Amino acid sequence: MPDTVSPPEAYPVTERNKVRRLHERGRYDHASVHAILDAAMICHIAYIIDGQPYCTPTAFWREGEHLYWHGSSASRMLRKQKAGIPVCLTVTHLDSLVLARCGFNHSVDYRSAMCFGEAYFVEDPAEKARALDVMINRFYPDRAATLRPSTGQELKATTVIGMRIEQASGKIRSKGVADEEEDYALPIYAARFPVRQVIGAAEPCPRMPAGVATPDGLAGFAEGRRLDEILLESQHRLYGDE
Amino acid sequence: MPDTVSPPEAYPVTERNKVRRLHERGRYDHASVHAILDAAMICHIAYIIDGQPYCTPTAFWREGEHLYWHGSSASRMLRKQKAGIPVCLTVTHLDSLVLARCGFNHSVDYRSAMCFGEAYFVEDPAEKARALDVMINRFYPDRAATLRPSTGQELKATTVIGMRIEQASGKIRSKGVADEEEDYALPIYAARFPVRQVIGAAEPCPRMPAGVATPDGLAGFAEGRRLDEILLESQHRLYGDE
């Protein structure tokens, strides 16, 4: 019997998540979309209140096919309406500036993912406490257990919102300068400038008691490293390749 | 007669743009909001199609109280409905990761701005051509005049969308670690990790003819510089302090 290879899991494509402009850049398989999400800490969430769209930045994290964030003003809408509300959660990494030989071909290299689903409150106190520990550990490996435990008051003051990814699409451009064939010979400067988000040297809180060491879990947080690589490592450390 | 000082110009505050969570971080004056916008190239735009919110990343630029971008899928909605459509355009800069002594006080330092208005097509061909030149020069000083001119076909294929900022709010956190007074003495590692977006060394297109020099206008694009600082300089070079 021949070995069978399963096709990669992918999100269903409809009008909602189909990549329209430059559709050759589109990705719908889970692995591509997850890789874009897991390299980020900040997303932007679109939601509607009384017919007005809002776009709010927030920290988020992924657990399987669920995304979580806390305390955005989407809470306002959720509180009004007990059922889930439709949201679009988007992540974007800017990877380069592309200076071409004509205005039309100026561009950027980037990776972005749009996720569609319905937002709901995580209300169970135990589930909420677990979610917040996961958030800490997802960004900063093994950190939650080293912290002063959350108080009941803190948990009460924290809103955790979740959504299942019903549909998603990724979009990637990575080709740098791409000009019209007849333009390459023109005496015009054209170049790609890489862009990356990096962390600087840790600034330890000056009020720490003497002798508190940097935890092993933060070994990856080295000066000058790319934040997207650090975040991807943290996610894999907690969840493997899920 | 005493000198009079005008109060700084500010956006009107209503339910739509009032900063709710952590309202002490809110800013409504034009100068604060513009400074956040002008330090960015990429924004996220929320809009509604058939009751579904979408959140799309795109390059944008500011000219006075108008914002412009091109070719987002908001075009789909605009095409259906001739009148302006409500949008929310948001810019976010992540400035640091803040690791506190309890989960609740973990945070990030950031600058963000949300702008509300109605999107419309820039349809006049001359205005469109000018807008695209401005876009190039706003990011890359004096560059538009050095390029191969746009063809009629290219202009036709480009959609330029504009909006007047009706209302906006900025939000800034920059205080680093801030713990409960009684937690500072605990033997827990706490620190701030600065985050910055930087550009790398230019990668000139290998197909340039010999002898094409780097234009003077790109002198600010030096390896390792912060992109937000470069973009703010470019904006001021074109528009001064407007």
UniProtKB/TrEMBL annotation, chains A, B:
Q: Which InterPro entries match?
A: Pyridox_Oxase-rel (IPR024747), Split_barrel_FMN-bd (IPR012349)
Under the heading Pfam families, the entry gives: Pyridox_ox_2
The lineage's top-level taxon is Bacteria
This protein is called Pyridoxamine 5'-phosphate oxidase family protein
